[in-house]
Amino acid sequence: MELKTRRQYTIIEDRDEDFGRRADTPIRKAAVIAVIGNPYVGRYVDDLTPMIQASADLGRLMARRVVAAMGDVEVQSYGKGGLVGIGGEQEHANAVLTTEFANPIRDALGGGKAWISSMTKVTAPGTTVDIPMNHKDDVYVRSHYDGMTITLPDTPMPDEIAVIICVASRGRLNARVGGLTHEEVQARG
Fold first, then answer.
1. Which of 67, 70, 72, 134 is the most exposed, having the fewest neighbouring CB atoms within 10 Å of its CB?
2. CA 58 to CA 55: how far, in whole Å?
3. Record's InterPro entries (predicted)?
């Protein structure tokens, strides 16, 4: 099976200030979205293995795009999601977002020991989705519990799946709830 990409989006946000306080180090967040045709639209399929296996190529494509969006900025956190058009089912997005899809992204980012949090749903075009993010190497780094809100006009159409990867260069601006730090995770390798 080949997952056919119909269109792609890249969203980049650079934030220097939050709640009136300038950051010593700004945060960059990027979202890369690939809208694919849903090969199982309108029908129930017991075995989604072909879709899972095909998602590795999609992961490689999206990995290149997310690295380009971040430029020379280090990625510290990530999240993923999928919006399924109303002709499909939520399980179709989950099939595309497994480890087969995620490992090429981890490789492109230079690792990622933590699971990648995710959100999937069946929706009409233009629905907003919040993609949760956590530290890429340890889910217990509280400063990196964050997310990106994505709205894609005209997406997904009933026979599409919007596959989303979000990354960030650091934890939240003004994070101060304690716990394990990024530096502590890096030190233990």
1. 72
2. 5
3. AA_synth_put, BB2672
Half-sphere exposure of 140 (CA within 13 A, CB side): 4
Contact 166, 131 (CB under 8 A): yes
* pLDDT tens column, 69-79: 999 999 999 99
Residue 128's domain comprises 5-188
What CATH number did the domain enclosing 162 receive?
3.30.1330.110
Phi/psi class of residue 179: alpha, beta or left (left: φ > 0; alpha: ψ in -120 to 50)?
left
3-state secondary structure of 134: strand
Q: Interior CA angle at 43 toward 58 and 101, to 5°?
A: 15
Q: Tokens 């990995």 belong to which residue?
A: 63
Percentage of the chain surpassing pLDDT 90? Answer: 93
